[in-house]
């Protein structure tokens, strides 16, 4: 009898934990998936000016890339992103969110200068925005529509042609 009570209690605890984990994960992962509202991004840029991408994008779609200066794929993608910015800057607001909580600010500045990044570089010094966007791999790209809804999510080294196609879909 005592054994059945212990087994039943263990089952109830397991069910409660599973349900809690499921609902928590559903709520948390909503931002990482296409068709969900993009989380707010308010971060300082390299000059210390605070940027709110919803307001500063001026009604444009948003291309958001999370990166670090030590990421090999990020180094490879930097020139491609600069070229694409030149092609789409009138239709899409580009922002590079540096995961400064996992990087060195001196290295970040050196990277930006060496690669001549022409778009705003934002500093996520506490990792809060990185956490809201559930960034686990680098680089991570979010394509956000003018309505603030995540249109697509890309991870890792992406060929230029694929990025070009995604940007054309985002802002024809």
UniProtKB/TrEMBL annotation:
Its main location: other. The keyword Glycoprotein does not apply. It comes from the Bacteria. GO terms for molecular function: antioxidant activity; oxidoreductase activity. Keywords: Cytochrome c-type biogenesis, Disulfide bond, Redox-active center, Signal-anchor, Transmembrane. Signal peptide: none annotated. It is found in: Cell envelope. GO terms for cellular component: cell envelope. SUPFAM superfamilies: Thioredoxin-like (SSF52833). Gene3D superfamilies: Glutaredoxin. Residues 32-172 form the Thioredoxin domain. The keyword Lipid metabolism does not apply. CDD domains: TlpA_like_family. It holds the Pfam family AhpC-TSA. PANTHER family: THIOL:DISULFIDE INTERCHANGE PROTEIN DSBE. This is Thiol:disulfide interchange protein. It comes from Paenibacillus naphthalenovorans.
């Amino acid at each position: 009898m005592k054994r059945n009570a212990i087994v039943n209690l263990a089952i109830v605890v397991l069910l409660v934990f599973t349900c809690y984990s499921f609902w928590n994960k559903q709520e948390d992962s909503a931002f990482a998936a296409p068709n969900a509202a993009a989380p707010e991004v308010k971060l300082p840029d390299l000059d210390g000016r605070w940027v709110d991408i919803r307001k500063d994008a001026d009604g444009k779609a948003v291309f958001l890339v999370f990166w670090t200066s030590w990421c090999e794929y990020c180094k490879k993608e930097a020139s491609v992103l600069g070229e694409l910015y030149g092609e789409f800057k009138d239709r899409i607001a580009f922002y590079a969110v540096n995961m400064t909580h996992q990087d060195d600010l001196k290295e970040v500045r050196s990277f930006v200068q060496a690669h001549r990044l022409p778009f705003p570089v934002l500093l996520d010094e506490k990792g809060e925005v990185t956490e809201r966007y559930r960034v686990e791999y680098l680089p991570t790209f979010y394509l956000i529509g003018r309505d603030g809804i995540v249109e697509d999510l890309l991870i890792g080294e992406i060929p230029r042609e694929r990025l070009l196609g995604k940007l054309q879909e985002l802002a024809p």
